[in-house]
Amino acid sequence: MFRAIFCAFLLISCTSSSQNDPLEKLKEYEGLYENQGETTLTLQASKMDTTLYAVIDYAKYPLYYDSVDSFRNNQGDVVTFQRNSQNEVISYSVDGNSFQLLSKDFDALDMEPRADLNNDGDRYVYETPKKINDGLKTGSITELENPDLILDMVRKTIEGDFPDVHSTLIYKNGALVLEEYFYGYDITAPHQLRSATKVLYGTLLGIVIDKGLIKNENELLLPFFNDEYESVENLDERKRKITIKDFLTYQHGMDCENNNPRSKGNEIAMMQSDDWVKYTLDLPMVSEPGKTSSYCTGIALTIGKLIEMVSGEDLESFAKENLFDKLGIKNYQWRFAPDYSSRTTFSQKSLTPREMLKWALLYKNKGIWNGEQIISSDWVDKSFATYGIGEFGYLWEHKYITVDGKRFDSYMASGNGGQKINIWPELDMVTVFTGGNYNSYMLYGVSTPPNRMIPNYILKATL
To answer: Could you say which DSSP state residue 392 is in?
Structure first.
């Protein structure tokens, strides 16, 4: 069945080999359809790459042609379309389940990088980002040593060389110097953060500790959950020793690794459970805590639940009062519910790229925004420190890139699809990308476009 049901990983590959016009043939499948879990999805064809896409919650997933009225998803499952006596598509079936076409009318997703420019990069003219009342200063791309590289990057994005990059922002030397949007996104549109949301829990936990609601991150973790859960499974001496810090640094020691399908704590398995926090806490141990890092979605969600318990507030309200209002973040979407009801939204947060930038600048500026200390500088320093093998700080990822023999260090919040928030301290720079290349690595073994754009254009532009 569609992976989207559990973790929005619906990636179905499809190129039509129809006789005359492949695009028109693909349009026969377009429409609003039923989906599992009382949800819906739309199917829409793109003329940019002559591909049929499934669209769920503004995220699109490609489908690949297999045979007449038949497609395959990334797991190899066959998706078959049915027609009526008039040869019209009326439903699709997958994994023994059938889903009806509800309407041929649907809200179409913008499938072109910049339709206003006819996707012609030569027509692009750079403009300084707009000044709005959001606390961000704006400046010129000339703040970079080689701005022509950046402009070339934007032109290539417009022409489709970097597909499904939705926004690119560069903040350099105290000013926003580049702000470009694609595929119908603009300055007002919140964008899914996906796993970049995890870092937010670390931010909020720092505020909790600053307030004295938890003594410090070295406190044992499990006692905080005694009132919430009657018992924890697979309890041994190793699990009893887990601290909050072990979760913050992904050094939990549990059988939980997102990139390992055999791991019991893999997020796909977790998302099928009723209570994701309980599922995580019940996992068996495979090593001593505090020794090695293992990236795990349930770990970050458990920290979110911990914040709710010690603050006595739902996480959204706590975040609004203690973080978002202070940063002037207003245009966002979020529902924190780490359970089966969030199987298609993952409790992720959506922010506008400018608001992502402000969140990163809070860390870059040692926890200060507009003269107010929102999180302690000590927490920022701990968040960016090196733990274990050095891959993670406090939920932030350490990202190192070498370009022309020079090493560039950054702290990164990253999410599936090409969500990248990077703080580059030595360059006095922050970069923000949003995108829709969901599961590109899982499908094709290739990284998302920002992983090529950052070293080959942005970092080179600073040399």
So the answer is: B
Report the helix count and the strand count for the chain, using DSSP H and E: 15, 20
Both tokens of 446, joined, read: 């290739």
Residue 32 CB coordination number (10 Å): 19
C-alpha angle 135/138/143, rounded to 5°? 140
Residue 343, SS3? Answer: coil
CATH topology of domain 4-103: Lipocalin (2.40.128)
- Tell me the pairing of strands 70-73 and 12-13: antiparallel
CA distances from 444 to 1, 50, 292 (A): 20, 18, 28
What's the pLDDT band for 345 if we cut at 50, 70, 90?
confident
State the amino acid at position 231 in one-letter form: S
CA distance 296 to 154: 34
Domain ranges across the chain: 4-103
DSSP 104: S
Region of residue 439 (phi > 0: left; psi between -120 and 50: alpha; otherwise: beta): left
Sign of CA dihedral 437, 443, 449, 455: positive
- The vertex-90 CA angle with 84 and 93, nearest 5°, equals 110
Q: Are residues 71 and 65 in contact, defined by beta-carbon separation less than 8 angstroms?
A: yes
Distance (Å, rounded) from C-alpha 23 to C-alpha 26? 5
Q: Model pTM greater than 0.85? A: yes
Q: Tens digit of pLDDT for each residue in 269-316?
A: 999 999 999 999 999 999 999 999 999 999 999 999 999 999 999 999
Q: Which long-range contacts (CB under 8 A, 24 or more apart) does 133-138 make?
A: 134/328, 134/354, 134/358, 135/327, 135/328, 135/358, 135/369, 135/370, 136/171, 136/176, 136/354, 136/357, 136/358, 137/174, 137/175, 137/176, 138/175, 138/176, 138/177
Using one digit for the tens of pLDDT, what is the confidence trace for 386-444? Answer: 997 779 999 999 999 999 999 999 999 999 999 999 999 999 999 999 999 987 654 44
Specify whether the CB–CB gap between 316 and 308 falls below 8 A: no
C-alpha distances out from residue 414 to 71, 170, 256, 380, 434, Å: 31, 16, 19, 18, 10
- Across 211-229, average pLDDT: 97
**Rounded to an integer, what distance in angstroms lies between the CA atom of residue 311 and that of residue 318?**
8
- Give the position of tokens 């603050």: 311
pLDDT tens figures, 44-60 = 999 998 989 999 888 88
